[in-house]
Amino acid sequence: MTILDTLFGLIPAQSRGQQWLAEELQLINWGGYDGGPHRVRFSPGATLLCGGSGSGKSTLMDAYIALMMPHTTPFNGASNGGVSGRARSGDQRNILSYGRGKIDESRTEEGTRMRVLRGDGRDTWTAVAMTWADHDGSRFTAVRAWYIPASARALEETVKVRGVVDGPFDLADLEQAAAQRLAAPALRAAGLETMATDREFLARIYSVLGIGAAGSGAKAMGLLARIQAGQQISTVDELYKRMVLEAPETLTAAEAVVAHFDELDATRERMVTAQKQVRALAPIRQMRERIEQAGERLRLIDRIGSFSQAGSRAALWRHERRLGLLREVEDELHGRKREADAVLREREAAARTAQAEYEAALEVVRHSGGGRLEAAERELRAVERRLEDVRRARERFAEATACLEARVTTEKDFAALARRARAELDRPRGRTALRSAYAEARARATALRRDLEEAQAERELARGRQDSIPTRLHDSRRMLAEAAGLSSSELPFVGELVEVRAEFEPWREAFNLALGGFATTLLIDAAHLERFREAINAVRTPARLRYEGVHTGLERRGEPDPRSLPGRLDYRETVFTGWLRDRLEQQFGFICVDSARELRDHPRALTLTGQVSQGGRGAHGGQGGRNVLGFSPHRRLEELDREISALRERAERAAREQERAEEDLDTMEARHGACARVLETDWAQIDVASVERERQRWSGVIAEVSSSSPRIAELQQRCAALQARVDGLREGIGRAKARQEQVEAQWAANTDAVDEAQTALDEAREEDGVILSEEEQAYLDGRFPLEEPAGTGSAPSPAARLERFDAALSTASRLVEEDRRSAMETVGQQREALRRTLEVFLDTWPNPSLRADPDTSLKDFERILQDLETSGLHELEAQWRNSLLRLSGNDLTNLDSSLSRARREIQERIAPVNRIMEDLPFYDDDHRLQISLHENQSEVRRRFRRELREVRGLIDAASSDAQREQAYGRMSRLIDRIRRDAPDVATLIDVRTHVRISAEKVHARTKEHAALYDHIGEKSGGESQELIAFIVGAALRYQLGDADAARPRYAVVFLDEALIKADARFTQRAIGAWRGLGFQLVIGAPNDKYSAIEPHVEAEYDILKDTRGRSWAKPKVALPGGGAVGQDGARGAG
């Protein structure tokens, strides 16, 4: 038996366990490998592929990936290191670019164009095949081929072939099939057994080659792909997690939990939406019913017609109803007539009897002296009436003349008062003077109030401005600016641009006097001057303004003399400032002096009081004027406050003077009125004393007569009683006659009305044939009821009912019109409400096939409502929420279990890997390498796990809708934390982040700790490669499913640009580690970095490329009887 002598001991070359080794790789039209087939035979131990950058090393390894890996596996990092995107997308190396042999890209008139070795404007094809050999001589070949039409832009547009052969296979046999676009019959004729899908193809390969345990071949191939990619890794933790551990099932479980919850919640949302839609559409039925009822009422009113229309149903009903009432009234009046006649006869008989008794008693009084007494009593009554009139006249006279303060008790007093009144009325001058004084006081008060209001308005405007210019000038400036299309800043006053410096504040009044009208001059850019003049020519302003065109943007020169007026001012920075400073220095450069004696010392000077001198000329006076300088409103506001205070005081004083003048005038007017009343009055009209004396005289006469005849009083009383009785009976007779006449008149009128109503009714029935329906009769009876409402007392009489009916008919047309208008308003309101309801529904749930039109779409919305109610979806929300809580709660429980299980699986994954490495010497024969795992403590993760359990408990304990709603809210927030885009989802769900993995070097015999391997970057390149080889190789043995076998069932491992940083010693140990684990290595390395690898391989190829972009593999250390054979026998088409 042949024994392999390795670093790790003697290993039998022939093992009873099955082991598949890569024997040969074939390529046709793959990348730079044009034509073919190109063949690369591999050593059972290790094969080296070396070449320059871009020569085609990675192209060979990508061929292996294209053959063995799913389409989601990206091609090697060396090929795609500078690009990003989806694996094998248009931005990366892909099947189309390899099949056409892409060289580079060039820019043409049509755009970017790809330069290729083949397939430019014509169809091409490509194929990759690998043959494996077992120790017992068995062969197995897998083939992938693609027919690429010239128009193909995506892999889906190609013809894909997936095939296997239980034995060797020559890709040259596909030439004839390629001519037939790789048709299935041609492939079968060539000896290929084809599969329809990648899943079937890879499952067949994994099954035959024994890749992966229990169907986990995809995981093993994924690990092989990561090993081949040769990723840069800095820590053992990262190495193990990226190279050995796949994505944990917890990520899938979390996504399933989220998807299940979203699916259930979406159904719940549909239920909630259905609820909202039912609530939104439920009112439309009542609205439709109201519209239909109002429409029916309108049609009914139209059929009834107008009461004023002779042949209408309304008129017919009126005639029928009124005729019935008139006949009832006729019967009532007949009875009342009999009653009135009997009452009249009774009262006339009683009156005749009482009159006879009265006349007899009166005769007795006359014989007893009653004539004189009767006359005295009659006179006394007349005097008492006159006394009452005189007293009222005296009271009115006293009230009218109270302002004269005169006491009038006799006719003499009255005459004196009349003389005074006439004399006062003859003096009109005093009255005229008072009227003039009142008019002057009123005018003065009104003027001061107006001045105060103007000052207050001026202050309000000044608060919003940054200057001291009066409002009238501002308003005038605004009118000119609007006419010229300019802003206020483009048309400033000089006073707005300057301010007196604080230290020279006492000079403010002097500067205002010196500048004079120049301070209120408008400045305008000379470029706008002509246009400005034309624009304002027709404008009328309240104040006359001066303006001057100036050159803007002039530079500021040096600072002016601080003794001069310009030097004691601050300037606002504008485009006008440069010109303004020049003008002030030229025209107003007055030197400020302290006394008038110093004026002669300067050509131009100014005193504090405002006197100026200019040589022999000068000016003075005008103090107390308004300040117009400054770009701050504070001083102007202070002036206005003082002015307003003074005006308010003067206005109050003037108001008091007006009140006094008005009081004086009112007093004078009252006295003149009283005097006129005195002259209009006669003493007899108000002489109460004379009338009282006359009353006393007649009272004495009556007393005298009564005392002389004692029985007269008794007889008079009897006469008075009899007279009163006679008068009462006569009044009763009058009332009875009036009642009788009234009843007779009513009976006559009622009889005429009965005849008229009967005639009208007969004519309506005979001529028009109108008949009232029950509905019309019920409407009119209900609209014009004749009976009193229940509970209001006794029933009304027929006459009252008729009166009430006539009163109702007087407004019948109005009432019916109100009904019509109300019905129309109901239709309009309900249609508008219906339209708004439909609009709100469509705004909330848009539907392009529906319109918010009550006329055209109402039935569609009612059908939607009926469908919703029929489905009952809106009634199941509470039940569904409970089910959602229960099901999602179970999902959370399963997720919690998955987290614990995935954590255990990591530990369980490490154990077999450690068992494999227990038999492999590491560093030397006395040491071994072991993987250790440590928990990463995280308070966030602990709280998350605790919340998982709490939410589950909360769901179980929820017994009311409020508790279930609370549980649902917490569960929803919890699930949001495990969504894919959640910020901490990896920390919570990816159990790989829950642990920290490191490697330990231990003593082989005692298992004692010797060294810790955590950060790979801290080790040398060779040490790193040896460490990676041990860890990844052992994990690969486990992943391939034959950890307990003498050697792996699938031995092929591709390493792209690996082992290039190690020296000879560590390279030997790394390769020895791989081979000691029983793997067959295919190593890619650049030309300048393979020297340490070369002594440890049995086969070596130089990868070459010519100037046309064609690549081939040239054997450097060939296997016996083999090599790389191309189309031309030496290097293919190259």
Automatic annotation (TrEMBL):
Region (Disordered): 611-630
Iron-sulfur as UniProt keyword: no
Upper classification of the organism: Bacteria, Bacillati, Actinomycetota, Actinomycetes, Actinomycetales
InterPro entries referenced in this protein's UniProt entry, alphabetically: P-loop_NTPase
Subunit structure as annotated in this protein's UniProt entry: Heterodimer of SbcC and SbcD.
Family per record: Belongs to the SMC family. SbcC subfamily.
Amino acid composition bias (Gly residues), ranges on this chain: 613-627
Protein name per Swiss-Prot or TrEMBL: Nuclease SbcCD subunit C
Source superkingdom: Bacteria
Keywords, comma-separated and alphabetical: Coiled coil
Coiled coil regions, renumbered to chain: 373-400, 438-465, 637-671
